[in-house]
Amino acid sequence: AQSVTQPDIHITVSEGASLELRCNYSYGATPYLFWYVQSPGQGLQLLLKYFSGDTLVQGIKGFEAEFKRSQSSFNLRKPSVHWSDAAEYFCAVGAGTGANNLFFGTGTRLTVIP
Amino acid sequence: KAGVTQTPRYLIKTRGQQVTLSCSPISGHRSVSWYQQTPGQGLQFLFEYFSETQRNKGNFPGRFSGRQFSNSRSEMNVSTLELGDSALYLCASSLEVGTSYNSPLHFGNGTRLTVT
Q1: Which segments in chain A show pLDDT lower than 70?
Q2: How confident is the model at residue B99, as a pLDDT?
Q3: In the prediction, which pLDDT does B103 show?
Q4: What pLDDT does residue B2 have?
Q5: Parallel, antiparallel, or unpaired: how do β-strands B42-50 and B74-78 relate?
Q6: Closest of A72, A62, A87 to residue A33, by C-alpha
Q7: Measured between alpha carbons, how far is A40 from B43 in angstroms, rounded to an integer?
Q8: Does B42 touch chain A (CB under 8 A)?
Q9: From the CB of residue B18, how many other CB atoms can be counted at a distance below 10 Å?
Q10: Hey, which of A40, A50, A103, B30 would disulfide with A33, CB 3.0 to 4.6 Å?
């Protein structure tokens, strides 16, 4: 069965510092992986996705993620955090073709201090 | 292009009542999925509709149901509301049924349901 672990519940970084949010997945085959961001009172916005090919994936808002099969990880990174990046970040794994049921991690809340 | 639209944004209901939530997908999207988000259980998949047919279903009781209309708009219904049904209900649409690179899920802002 698919599952996602986000080991960090809450991370605080200074504006301008680099960021890495961790995500580990469990899936038997090649996973479909996603990162979504949720601001307070809002829905989820897709940051980036991985299906196959290049293991370094570029997304919106300057985010990137690297798929590492050997570590079952899909960590999200940003070289320089902006105050507007403060939000909750969710990693998700897809159930495979033919289904839109994503399995989400519990989320990491990001606080950015000036 | 307008995003996924969910109405209403907020609802307060009493235990035992029923509720209907509405979702309009992005224009051209034919698949609609519903998720429940709670602090305790996180984000959980409810069901997916495509071409007016339920294609996939999560592990929720039969009190949770949905439907999709010919214009791809969708509604979900929860009957005999329980306190534990209090949650943010998120609707998401995609071009086609199932996950694919060119057809990822796009989420609406949700309907916040409070059951008292």
Answers
A1: 95-99
A2: 64
A3: 77
A4: 81
A5: unpaired
A6: A72
A7: 15
A8: yes
A9: 11
A10: A50
